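DM from R.C. (forwarded with permission)

"hey, sorry to bug you on a friday — could you get me a structure for this? deadline for the figure draft is monday and I only need the backbone to look sensible"
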Amino acid sequence: MPPPSAERRRLRDALFRESARDWLERNVLGTAWSLMPSRVGDVPVMARIWLNDLLGGGKDLPDPESPLNAGGVVGVVHDLSIPTIVAAAKRGLFPLGHTGGPKWWSPSVRGIVFLDEFHMPKRLRRLMRQGRYTVTFDRDYEHVVSHCAGKRPGRWHLTWVTPEMMRAYADLFDAGLVHSFEVWNEKGELVGGGYGLAVGRVFIGESLFSLEPNASKVALSVLAWHLAKWGFSFIDTKIVTPVTSSLGFHEIPRADYLALNQKAMAGPGKPGRWEVEAGPEIVADWRPEKAVKPGGTGGAGPAGAEDGAAKFSETDMTSVGA
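My reply, with the result:
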């Protein structure tokens, strides 16, 4: 992949930042979140994780099934390089942190959807047939991730999409491993989308945003159609929210997820820039449950499309709004 242009680097410098006030707000709210009654019991375990990290040097990725688990946290992140994030994904780990730097997470359950189980409600299909939206891939990563990190009206600004994470995933985007998906309205305005990491036949949704009702659902539907066509197995959204639940996402135990993840990530991937092959109007007629599974791995190609050779706050796919 070619390096980012000077213009793109300047755009990132302008967007991938937070004011002192935003930094303070994020850290205060992150600390308050950690000390909530439902989570305060994890503080001693987190202290042991920090201590073990200090004594052990923190060089190796943690065991995703470690008994030392603080509400999903199993380790401290020291390296957000491309090889480390990809290796962590293959182990079933993901980086996340509201305050004090990112940590390695391995929650007890994981939210996923197999692509032959993806569900589009009738109301969503009607919206997609109206021709109001255009979907693109890898067109505007910088503004997508900036929107994902932005404040939401009526919500506390508690986000893990920090400038550090923005830049780390920008490196993955430049390497053709992270992909953005954008929704544009009839005025040509960016009104929804998200981004995620593709490793093997797994797409790990990182974050979503939506400025118009159901724009994020349109984005995910078009993305799912393409992932199915390209031979992907499932989408991982970390946890299930009301929005992702309405699209067929469900929770599975950690052990089941790790077994599925290991198998699917060993498959061929699809690095490089992605191009949209079907818009919302076509995807609206997709019936995932009627498609033929490629290789019986849990994935499914869109009905009428040949199997691909290649082979999701709305501030994040763990807190997604419509």
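R.C.: lifesaver. The CA atoms of residues 16 and 166 lie 6 Å apart.
me: no worries. The chain has a mean pLDDT of 87.
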